[in-house]
Amino acid sequence: MDALLFLTFAAIAVGCAINLVLQTHPIASALSLVGVMGSLAVLYLLLGGEFIAAVQMIVYAGAIMVLFVFVIMLLNAAAEKKTRKPALRAVVAVPLLFTFLMLVAYLIQTQAPKGTGVKFGGFTGGGPADIGRSLFTTYILPFEVTSVVILIAILGAVVLARKEV
Amino acid sequence: MHQLWLIPALPLAGFLVNGIFGRKLSKPAVNAVAIGSVLLSFLWVVKTLLALGPLESAYTESYFTWIQSGIVNVGFDLAVDRLAAVMLLVVTGIGLLIHIYAIGYMSHEGGYYRFFAYLNLFMFFMLILVMAANFLLLFVGWEGVGLCSYLLIGFYFLKKSAGDAGKKAFVVNRIGDFGFSLAIFLTLVTFGSLDFGEVSAKAATMSPETTAGVVTGICLLLLVGATGKSAQVPLYVWLPDAMEGPTPVSALIHAATMVTAGVYMVARAAPLFNLAPIALDVVAFVGLITAVLAATIGLAQNDIKKVFAYSTVSQLGYMFLALGAGAYSAGIFHVMTHAFFKALLFLGAGSVIHALEGEQDLRRMGGLRSKIPVTFLVLMCAAVAIAGVPPFSGFKSKDEILLAVHAYSPWMFWVGVVTAGMTAFYVFRAIFLCFFGTYRGKAHPHESPLVMTLPLGVLALLSLGGGYINVPQYLAPVFGQPNVDHDMTLVAISVGAGLAGIFLAWLFYVVKPELPEALARTFSAPYKLIYNKYYVDEAYDALVVHPLRDGSRSVLWRGIDAGLIDGAVNGTGALARSIGAGLRTMQSGYIRRYAAWVVLGSIVVVAMVTFLGGAR
Amino acid sequence: MPSEFPIPLPNLPLPDAVPLSWYLILSAILFTLGVAGFLFRRNIITVFMSIELMLNAVNLSFVAFSYHLKSVDGHIFSFFVMVIAAAEAAVGLAIILTVFRNRQTLEIDEVSSLKL
Prior knowledge:
The complex is a heterotrimer.
Chain A lengths: L1 H21 L3 H21 L3 H26 L10 H26 L16 H9 L3 H22 L4
Chain B lengths: L5 H16 L5 H26 L6 E11 L2 E9 L1 H24 L6 H20 L3 H19 L6 H32 L4 H10 L2 H22 L8 H4 L5 H10 L4 H8 L1 H4 L3 H22 L5 H21 L3 H28 L17 H14 L6 H16 L1 H26 L14 H16 L5 H4 L1 H4 L8 H24 L3 H8 L1 H8 L4 H49 L6 H22 L4
Antiparallel strand pairs in B: 1-2
Helix pairs in contact in B: 1-2, 1-4, 2-3, 2-4, 3-4, 3-10, 3-15, 3-19, 4-5, 5-6, 5-10, 6-8, 8-11, 8-13, 10-15, 13-14, 13-18, 14-15, 14-17, 14-18, 15-16, 15-17, 15-19, 16-18, 16-19, 17-18, 17-22, 18-22, 23-24
Chain C lengths: L19 H21 L3 H26 L3 H31 L13
Helix pairs in contact in C: 1-2, 2-3
């Protein structure tokens, strides 16, 4: 059952990711990314990350992707024009990426820890209570620092997006 | 302590004051500083020598250790012995007179303070040279006077010929200095010391078999240095050109003091030369050749200063002849008397030139006897002195030399006698052309001021009577008793040669002025040869200067500098450029290409981790 | 196979528990696809989304390792990644807006002023 669920949502994620890469119109890519994020949220749930799964849906798929779509709409972005010389890029980049993937896969296969495997319910320490306790005790300083980072990001975004720069 | 350091320090102070503040000082102030420093120095020399008494052995004052490194241990030591005492008196005494004379001579010249600053600097270095207690300190003075000579020859630096003459003197002297410095190195390696006393002591104790070769080498290298400074064959060519400088400079540096530094140096190194008879022979030979060669050239020169310049070269040859014959004291004696009469000749010539507003050509003089009588009188004193007319100073010292040379090698004596005749001839030729006959120039001659004629008078007295200072006797403790018997026949022969020279000059230039031209036409080939100074300058040009210049241009410049060095430099640049041009294609500016490079890099990293076992 | 599942399942040789390496390889595939998107797409916004995809892929491996280690730290890490991604998205999209306003283009190859 676990394997089936994993394979299903993994397939959706990979399919959506491939679609993201292949689509020429940014809005299609954005929707594909939402699909990837949704299926990843399911996988997080399978891994016992309830809080992370919720944040993935709310912050990522919700807020950030809305921002993307908003910008696409704002700039009235159209589909990419046909490239003039796609051949070289494919010839160079595809083998490059394939090599990269094969290397990493080989590394994972040989080096990854061989445990009992992932079963739903095997880890239940990812609830909001656990995350919150950890955030406000062990990781209190990074947590506070992120608030500063976000503040700076907000200021930066405001400064950049103003009419008169 | 007798504070020997004051003797050179006083002119140095004068140089510093005049050199730094001279531009702002008035002429009397410059005079006071320049003359005052030399006068004080002279007085200090006199006081010191009186205080030191008979000075049977050298008196040394050590001030500080100058260089200490490995076997090199050189102190800043000044020493006075009888040899140095003679030289000190000559240098400061003549120097003082010439400084005074220069006030009058230079009064209308630009760069007044500069002139006196250089002159004081020269006095400083010359005194260091004379009082040095080791070879290295002597070398300091040696180089210093060379520098001042260069500066003063090129004093009229706006005149191209003066600048060229200065450079020529400098370059030719470098050749000699090269030999001198090699001699110093060799001395240091051989004896482990540069101190005169130590070197001669060690040289005396070493076995002749071990030292003969090395000492001969040292002496020959010293001779190379001496030929440069003292204008001997083959390096004499700079001295006649050095007459481009102001006349007081010609008198002080290029007649009376600096050019005798080579003689002084050889005399200083006498303990070494005594161990190297071959080197002494070479010294005598070089001296003889120089004496004859310069005397013959002097016969046909028309520039009054050039005549005296070749006369100086010739007389220096005489001194070397004396040194080579082992008569060091006679050589130094001649240094002193020569300083008197040659300084007088030059200063007198300067007075003539001053009177004629810069005219130096004998062909445009004549009949000046009545117009500038004082100058005529003192120049006559100098002329009879140099011609060897008894009982004046030149006779005394030349006599000593010729007698010693006769004992050494009779044929050299005869050549020396002929040269003495020629000397008398060309000096009196100059005198007759200048003062007798009718005036052939356009200027309005006027007698020089007292400040110039006073030193002339003093020098005239010294030229006439200086021979009675028995220098050989005084120097006996240094060089040993001169053991020459005063053979009256030989004396008569040399005096006769001088008188014959005077008579011929009188015959040629007073009685029958048309005779010389006829003779020159008859013997046109030899006349041309000596008139053009044996084409020595041209020969040096063709044999040394041109090959050097052309070789430098084609090999060193075009080949090595432009080809090799520039090629290497440009090649390095071109290599970096081409590598950069290759690498530049990476920097396309396209963000995605940068990303591709990042991917490539991460592939390499992952591959290394995977296959080289970076991961556990 | 649990019997209460209504739809009959094909009898595949599936393991009972999913190996950790499957998650990791999925993460690697997604990451590589993100890189591919970065390299192939020319629209700045799509390129930006590819970056988000890469971040997500890394997050997946964080969470997977967290399960394996039975620790909450991986979750915290991916939480921070999300926070930073949000900040980055805000700034990045603002930059895209500015670029578009100045150049009237979203073509990434038109923006090549990194080279003088």
